[in-house]
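Thread title: Can someone regenerate the structure for this chain?

I was given the following input by a collaborator and told the matching C-alpha cells would be attached. They weren't. Posting the sequence so someone can regenerate them.
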Amino acid sequence: MTNMPKRILVKGIGASPGITTGSVVIAFDPSEAIERFELNKDPVLVTSMTDPNWTICMRKAKAIVTNTGGVLSHAAIVSREMGIPCIVGTKVATSVFKDGDYVEVDTHRGIVRKVAKEEYEKRIKEPKTGRRTETSRARQKIRETGPGQGLIMWFKDVDKKDLPLVGGKGANLGEMFNKFPIPNGFCITVNAYKRFLKKNELEGEIFALLNRLDAGNTEELETVSRKLQRLIMMGKIPEGVRREILGSYRKLKEGSVAVRSSATAEDLPAASFAGQQSTFLNVKGEKALLEVVKKCWASLFTARAIYYRVVGGFGHEKVLIAVVVQKMVDSAKAGVMFSANPVNRNKDEILIEGSYGLGEAVVSGKVNPDAYIVDKKTLKIKEKRINEKKIAIVRDSPGKIKLSNWANSRPIPSV
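Best answer:
Regenerated them for you:
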C-alpha cells in the first residue's frame, strides 16, 4: 500500500484562474527566491505578499500563493496579466507548507493541496490546465503623436486622448474627474520630464547604458538601475519647470498631496505595469514636492521597471513619464472597485474590495480586505466576504504608513 501524505490544504481566494502542480518555494525576499528557483523546475512561490520587486520571480513561477491580499492586490493583478494561477489571502500558507512540498494549486476552488510525489509526477505529464498568456505579443502600441509644449495640465482639461502627454494614470484621472466627484489635482506632463533630461544632458548617457544592458543578468541590471536613478536625483529641475510646478501646487491650496508616477506605458488593456513606478502619500511642502517629483522620474529606471519593459517589448526611448499631484484624502475607509469582475471576467458583476484606512493597504496586499460582488443591473450584493480582524492605517510621516489593529490600536511594524 502506497504511503499517502497527511491531507494538508489551505484555502484562499482564487485571484488568477488555472489549476497546476508544482514544488513549494517559501520566500520572503525576491533575491533569495530567484536563487532557489534555479534548483526547482516547477516552483510554486509561497510568500506573504508580492510587490513590484518580485516581478522577475513571478515571471518564473508556475503558480503564486500568498498569506494576505485580495483579488485587487499586486500578486493578483500581475498574476492575471502574466497568466499565472494565483491564490491570495490564505493567511497561513507560509506556516502550513514547507520548502519542497508538492502541491496542487486549484484557483477555481481556492485551494492549495499537498499531494504525493507520485501524483505530482503523474500530473506534470498531463496537459497543463493553467494558462500563461503571451501578453507581451499583444501590447497596445502607444500613440506616437507629438505632444504639445504644456508643462502642467489640470484634471479638468485631461481625457484619454492625452495619454501620450500625461501617462495612463493621468489620463484615467482626467476622465474620472469630469464624471465623478474625485479630489482635484494636476499632471506634470512628459514635457517637464523631457526638459529636465535636456537641461541635465542625460538622454545620451541613459540610453547608452540601457542599450548595452543584459536585463537577464540580475547583478548588471541592479548596477545600471542604481546608476540611472542616481543620475536623475543629482539633476537640477529647470527653473521654468520648477516655477510651473510650485505655482500649480499653490493654486491647489492643499497642504498634503498624493504624488504618483504616470508613465505613457501603463494602465493599458494588455499591460498594467502594476506598481512599477513610485507613489508617495502625505507629501507636504514645496521642497518635499520637488524632491518626490524627481523620485517619480527616477522610478522609471528601477530594476523592476527596466526588466518589465524589456520582457514586454517596450522600447525604453518610447516610454516617458508624467507625474500626478492630487489632493490627499485622509480616509477612514477606502477601497478599489472594478467595473467588471477581473477573476471570472463577468461584465455583469462589479467587484469591490475595501478596508479601514488608505486604499494603499488594499492594492499593496498588506491586508485581507472585505470584498463584495455586486450585480451591475440591480446593484444588489450577490456575495460578500467580511474578515474578522479589521486593520487601520494611521499617518506616520510623509510617504510612510503605519498599520495598526483597529480594535485596540496596537501598532505593528511600519511598511
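The first strand starts at residue 9 and ends at 11.
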